[in-house]
Specification:
CATH superfamily of chain B: Thiamin diphosphate (ThDP)-binding fold, Pyr/PP domains
Number of strands of chain B: 13
CATH class of the largest domain in chain A: Alpha Beta
Number of domains of chain A: 4
Shape of chain B: globular
Structural class of chain A: alpha/beta
Distance between the termini of chain B: 64 Å
Helix content of chain A: 25-40%
CATH class of chain B: Alpha Beta
Largest sheet of chain B: 8 strands, mixed
CATH topology of chain B: Rossmann fold
Strand order of the largest sheet of chain B: 2-1-3-4-8-7-13-9
Oligomer: heterodimer
Radius of gyration of chain B: 21 Å
CATH architecture of the largest domain in chain A: 3-Layer(aba) Sandwich
CATH superfamily of the largest domain in chain A: Pyruvate-ferredoxin oxidoreductase, PFOR, domain III
CATH topology of the largest domain in chain A: Pyruvate-ferredoxin Oxidoreductase, domain 3
């Protein structure tokens, strides 16, 4: 029988039951592999459920550092009888099945082209523990131990991880190490090990950190100086404000008084969340809300008001499928249009596209600066794939000499000195007006905030010329925004090519891998990673300098392609859709196949 | 509609208050509401109350939703920052503004459509949280700007100008505010400024969630026979629980009443609400008694007005969130940012 042989390059998938404590055991496995110096990118695949339903954890071990989902499974850890048949079917021929062999399983339920690794986990656990909770938790550690022997992961990396995790809790430390070795010892006594797939020490992890985008975004809001957060629970974004809360507790609590330099409100709905963030932004505090697609729909009226009234506010949108219960626990990039043009009236909004947790941190902090500078809503367009999965990425960094950019705020001294203040007056030619915080000066600088009905001095007006002045100024401001947002990043192919590709956000790691594969296959593609909307001139130049441009995105309607065509007025015929939207993260295999097919048809038609 | 500036000339004899402002300094541009609108009387009462309270106009932030009532903040406190927000959503914007700077006074202006229909959820939740504000509903039972549809505070059986009868039960915002935890709850009538001005003064000095429901007849769409929000109807059915005098902190209480006639409630800032009781059994510091009293009189078709409930030592949302005394909008990067060294420690824990 064929045996998959691969060192530091395989996919292992854990099929578990949610609520069984498997998540921390699976994370332990990934961390151990990384301590061996080998990159891992895990993904949780979970239902809209808290206990008793199937859940999967798919970890890609890849020395080359490709963090995109690969597709295919080399080893299945089948811990859930409910999904056994489907799980077994997923294994690549010559792959490996790991299962609990305590109870006999009919041979008809196995495949004859995969290698079966049975370990009587329940039997070992029940013999060692009597407490039901302990049995459940240590069974998980025992299977991690067994896997570590099968895949040649050193025991000492686990021991080091345990000693860090259970510092000062010696009893827990000892019992975890004991459980780990029960699994390892069984494998050593009863099975052939290591397998054809295994881990070998390397140095490819370096100083990278392993974290999730939502925690990073919450931390970015702390570093970016947000003091007010309002939110309503919604998967997959709830862990953003929860992380903000955690880091604020630690860093923003005054030692002497125990008082907080932050305010977090769990609001009654998304309308109230965005309303509070806008109220705080209007009043000079940095404020944000975090939500997902359904929340954006509810916030839309307020987003329009903030656009027209020119109020800074940051929205972190962790995108997912919807509407429903179910698909919203799967990833997508399907809120581009609903965010870019949110609300009634002529509106356009600034969007940022982080590719990983590092950028969730930097873009969230940058969004707070941009919101103040541009006096408008700024969207950080994360998604479930990077938001809720841990990913290896660059360590966070911060320049301590950097002051926040509070934008154009007129001070009491300037008002006192007689500086002219027109709230919606473009005095600097960049479309961005000056504002005052409420309560600044006893006699000067107050104004009345409304949506559209006003003149340049914020006086009530329904006159056409006043309206047009304001609308044209907002367009000018949007042009200014294109120069201030993070700029697109270009990766040129080794040879000059008529083919270009545009991608953004969580597609980045799969795209990076796909470009390498295509290059090796002799298909040369220049690639541009968008970091923001509005698009700067360089995006138009890129499209104009290629005959065919693939727009790779994770939604059905090619929303980014629509935005490119709409904003840059490029020829739709040259913009080729590469769309992945079944709820799973896009893979390099998918992108490569799509581009190769397209190139093949191009050659046929020539 | 146009923006009309009032002449800036002040008569030299206009009296200045303790902070150096005349009553005119608390006004705004000329109202564009219908002549005789109850709302203009409430605006005038707000102007008078703020002037008498010696509040510097720029220390007030006035926020409203959408509707006739929500237009009024333009017509008073012209030197204050104002915000005409989204229909029914003023409470959330005010909450956020209050979190950003706890040092300003927050005046929330809303209507019955704005607070009881589209915005009932935000009204309720702002009361639950105890946002420090004076929240005034200009309650006329109809939609004025869209020409006379019933709002959710219209009484069952009340007739519209066109003759339609309202079959739905009314939302009683006062009862809700009492139940949801507001710490200052009053009802008044736009036609009774003697009662209204001290109630507004009490609300603006309260220090917690203060709510005033002001019945304010709509002269154009809801002032006819068959309406329960007309001037005549409200005058006939008004049952005031007390007459209120507002005594600022440190001022001497000079009015004399027989023992048992007056209840004096000292607020957190030292100001005193002196209530001449019109009903000997009424205790304005007993929330549950106030709720029962309200319900009994409501059943009799009476509109209970006056200060219905007050907690003299309220807490607010900042108390619940344990925020620092300084306004959150006053901090810079050095005060908010944990710095690169702390980040390096976070990185180390993520390896």
């Amino acid at each position: 029988m064929k045996r998959i042989e691969a060192v530091n390059d395989f996919v292992i998938k854990f099929a578990n039951i949610n609520g069984s404590g498997s998540a921390s055991a699976n994370e332990l496995f990934s961390r151990a592999v990384m301590r061996m110096g080998v990159p891992v990118s895990p993904r949780n695949i979970f239902p809209s459920n808290i206990q008793g339903m199937p859940t999967w954890y798919e970890a890609r071990v890849c020395e080359k550092g490709y963090h995109g989902r690969r597709g295919g499974v080399d080893m299945m850890v089948a811990m859930n009888p409910q999904t056994w048949a489907a799980d077994i079917a997923e294994i690549e021929p010559g792959g490996y099945l790991f299962y609990d062999s305590t109870r006999p399983i009919p041979t008809s339920m196995f495949r004859d082209d995969v290698h079966n690794m049975g370990v009587p986990l329940t039997e070992i656990t029940n013999a060692a523990y009597t407490d039901p909770r302990q049995r459940q938790l240590f069974k998980n550690i025992i299977y991690v131990g067994a896997l570590s022997a099968l895949l040649d992961v050193d025991a000492d990396v686990f021991e080091k991880l345990f000693s860090e995790q259970f510092k000062g809790k010696e009893r827990l430390l000892d019992s975890n190490i004991k459980a780990l070795h029960m699994g390892r010892d069984y494998v050593k006594q009863h099975l052939q090990y290591p397998l054809g797939i295994r881990v070998s020490r390397s140095d490819k992890v370096g100083n990278q950190i392993f974290t999730d985008g939502n925690s990073a975004a919450g931390l970015g809001c702390v570093y970016g100086g947000a003091t007010v957060a309002a939110w309503y629970p919604i998967t997959p974004s709830s862990s953003v404000p929860e992380a903000f809360q955690k880091y604020c507790d630690k860093f923003r609590t005054e030692e002497a008084t125990g008082q907080h330099k932050y305010a977090i409100v769990q609001a009654e709905d998304e309308l109230a969340s965005i309303g509070m963030a806008i109220g705080a932004g209007w009043n000079g505090a940095r404020a944000f809300t975090a939500t997902s697609g359904a929340g954006i729909s509810l916030m839309t009226e307020f987003i329009g008001l903030a656009y027209f009234a020119e109020i800074p506010v940051t929205l972190i949108n962790v995108q997912r499928g919807g509407p429903s219960t179910g698909m919203p626990t799967r990833t997508q990039q399907s809120d581009l249009l609903s965010c870019a043009y949110a609300s009634h009236g002529d509106t356009k909004h600034v969007l940022l596209f982080p590719q990983d947790p590092y950028e969730c941190f930097t873009h969230s902090a940058a969004a707070l600066d941009l919101a103040d500078r541009l006096q408008t809503p700024i969207f950080v367009m994360s998604d479930l794939d990077i938001g809720m999965n841990q990913r290896l990425c660059k360590p966070f960094d911060w320049d301590d000499t950097k002051e926040y950019d509070r934008g154009k705020v007129m001070t009491a001294a300037e008002l006192e000195a007689g500086k002219d203040f027109g709230r919606y007056n473009d005095v600097d030619g960049d479309g961005i007006p000056w504002r005052t915080y409420p309560g600044t000066h006893p006699k000067r600088g107050s104004y009345f905030t409304r949506g559209t009905s006003k003149d340049a001095y914020a006086r009530y007006s329904e006159r056409g010329p006043d309206y047009i002045y304001n609308m044209e100024r907002l367009l000018k401001k949007f042009k200014t925004a294109a120069t201030l947002v993070p700029q697109p990043l270009l990766r040129n192919a080794k040879e000059k090519t008529p083919l270009g590709a545009i991608y953004f956000g969580s597609t980045a790691p799969a795209m990076r891998e796909a470009l390498d594969v295509l290059e090796d296959a002799g298909v040369h593609v220049d690639a541009m990673r968008l970091q923001a909307f509005p698009f700067p001139q360089s995006v138009l130049d890129f499209i104009n300098s290629h005959e065919r441009v693939f727009v790779v995105e994770q939604n059905r309607d090619a929303q980014m392609r629509t935005m490119l065509i709409n904003e840059l007025e490029v020829d739709p015929a040259k913009m080729v859709r590469v769309l992945h939207y079944d709820g799973t993260p896009i893979t390099a295999r998918f992108i490569v196949a799509a581009i190769q097919n397209s190139v093949a048809t191009l050659k046929e038609t020539v | 509609m146009t923006f009309i500036a009032k002449p800036r000339l002040h008569h030299p004899s206009l009296t200045k208050n303790k902070v150096g402002y005349t009553r005119r300094d608390y006004e705004g541009p000329v109202s564009t509401l219908c002549a005789g609108c109850g709302h203009d009387s409430i605006s005038a009462a707000i102007i008078q109350a703020c002037w008498e309270l010696d509040i510097e106009p720029h220390r007030v932030a006035k926020l409203s939703g959408i509707g006739c009532s929500s237009k009024t903040p333009t017509y008073f406190l012209g030197a204050s920052h104002g915000f005409n927000t989204v229909h029914g959503r003023m409470p959330s914007v005010l909450t956020g503004a209050n979190l950003a700077n706890r040092e300003l006074l927050y005046l929330g202006v809303s209507g019955d459509g704005d607070s009881a229909s589209i915005g009932l959820g935000q009204f309720a939740n702002a009361m639950r949280r105890g946002v420090n504000m004076a929240y005034i509903v200009f309650n006329n039972g109809v939609y004025g700007l869209t020409k006379g549809q019933f709002s959710a505070t219209a009484d069952r059986g009340s007739k519209s100008k066109k003759g339609a009868v309202n079959n739905d039960s009314p939302v009683d915002l006062v009862s809700l505010a009492l139940q949801l935890g507001a710490t200052y709850v009053a009802r008044s009538f736009s036609g009774d400024k003697e009662q209204l001005i001290p109630l507004i003064k009490g609300a603006m000095s309260h220090g917690g969630a203060a709510f005033i429901d002001v019945i304010s007849p709509c002269v154009t769409f809801n002032n006819h026979g068959g309406s329960t929000k007309s001037y005549d109807y409200v005058r006939q059915h008004n049952a005031a629980v007390s007459r209120i005098d507002f005594v600022p902190a440190g001022a001497e209480i000079t009015t004399q009443y027989a023992p048992g006639e007056v209840v004096q409630v000292e607020q957190h800032d030292g100001s005193v609400l002196s209530l001449r009781k019109l009903h000997s059994d009424y205790d304005p510091t007993d929330r549950y008694a106030a709720m029962a009293y309200m319900q009994q009189h409501l059943a009799r078709g009476e509109i209970v007005t006056g200060l219905l409930y007050v907690d003299p030592l309220p807490t607010d949302l900042h108390t619940s969130l344990n925020t620092v005394a300084a306004p959150l909008n006053s901090f810079n990067a050095a005060q908010l940012n944990p710095g690169a060294a702390a980040l390096e420690k976070i990185n180390a824990a993520l390896r």
